[in-house]
Amino acid sequence: MKHTTPMCMIGDGSTNLGPDPPVEPITVTLKEYLYPEFFVFILDIIDEKLQPRLVPTEESPYWSSFLRFDDDFLDDLETWTSLYDPANIVISHNAPKDALFKAPKKVLIDNGQTVCFFKRCYGSIQITQELKTYKKIHEAGLDSRVNVCRLYGIVMDDCDFILRLLLTYIDCGGRPLSARVHPEEPDDPTPAIGERWMGQLETALSALHENIIVWGDVKAANVLIDENEDAWLVDFGGGYTEGWVDKEVAGTVMGDFTGMTRLRTLLFPAK
């Protein structure tokens, strides 16, 4: 059984495996979340009652990642982005009790000056494709000109395992475009807002194509609307979603145009 404290008190028949989390603000780093201290207990039967007993152990059974890059790819990454130690990244949380137990999405880097989205890496092929695209975006200077997600850095451990990506944090309350369109209510969003979003997406996509960059997985779920009602284009991991981009044109400029046409139909079904 995993726990964050070694306290084990046995007396009146009740067992307390740890104190309640503090109410005051606390600082929790990604290192503390990704590599929590482990305490192993076994259950003994004492006087016909189950009682936990702490077992000394030094090796943690938990691994945060098994993903690594070869030396050449890693050397190239260091020429255009930053590598971060999880000990220097602070989790942004609303409640102290959530800091170690809920998967973090919002983190702070650069001594708390920059807010980032903390994205998990699921496979070497996907993450390599995504990083190559972010490099192109960076080299073209698009991350400061149009509403496309940018890469701030990569979180790595002491053994050079890739833990997570640090991306643009888009404050949208967790609601993508797919959750902002209500077909049963023609004026939600209003035509003016819909045209605003399409204009921002078309501007961003044109800038990508001008720099030989393909969006790829075009769909409403990969468009985020922030708190200022601006549309952001996200997710460059490759692949495609049936119903949005046809398989035969997936990963091409034509595929992007197909997906954009369907986005416009979603926003303006009567046109």
From TrEMBL:
SUPFAM superfamilies on file: Protein kinase-like (PK-like)
Keyword Transferase set for record: yes
Top-level taxon in the UniProt lineage: Eukaryota
InterPro entries: Kinase-like_dom_sf, Prot_kinase_dom
Single GO MF annotation: protein kinase activity
Keywords: Kinase, Transferase
Pfam families on file: Pkinase (PF00069)
Residue stretches making up the Protein kinase domain: 73-271
Name under which the protein is recorded: Protein kinase domain-containing protein
Organismal lineage: Eukaryota, Fungi, Dikarya, Ascomycota, Pezizomycotina
